[in-house]
Specification:
By secondary structure, this protein is an alpha/beta fold. It has one domain: 2,3-Dihydroxybiphenyl 1,2-Dioxygenase, domain 1, CATH 3.10.180.10. The protein has helices at residues 17-27, 78-87; strands at 9-14, 31-36, 39-44, 47-53, 69-72, 93-95, 98-105, 111-115.
Length: 118
């Protein structure tokens, strides 16, 4: 049996790598560890998120193969995190009666979730 120890990275296909990189680094605090014109690899804690330029003319299909990406946050209340996202033009949704989960979409429509553990 192969014993895995964690997730190295997951890949999100995006229309514009620079736009997506800005969203993930400036709003969500990830850091770039490798990139070229068609992709950017970002550290997200001990895991990685890779942004790959979508190739071809087929439409970007979000939410089918990957329902959402849930991210832990270092600190912050539900209200403060929601306000920060909204200040940056991001529409925030949640589950009724659930104040630990903040849902929103990245610029390419990938569904993201912030897990509030306060």
């Amino acid at each position: 049996m192969i014993q895995t120890t964690g997730i190295d990275h997951l890949v999100l296909h995006v229309q514009d790598v620079a736009r997506a990189k800005k969203f993930y680094t400036e709003l969500l605090g990830m850091t770039v560890y490798r990139e070229n014109e068609g992709q950017a690899f970002l550290h997200c804690g001990q895991q990685g998120v890779a942004l790959f330029k979508k190739l071809g003319d087929a439409p970007l299909m979000t939410g089918n193969d990957l329902n959402h990406l849930a991210l832990n946050v270092e600190s912050g209340t539900y209200e403060a995190l929601k306000a920060e996202l909204e200040k940056n033009g991001v529409t925030v949704t949640g589950r009724p009666g659930e104040d630990r989960c903040i849902y929103f979409n990245d610029p390419d429509g990938h569904r993201l979730q912030l897990m509030v553990r306060s």
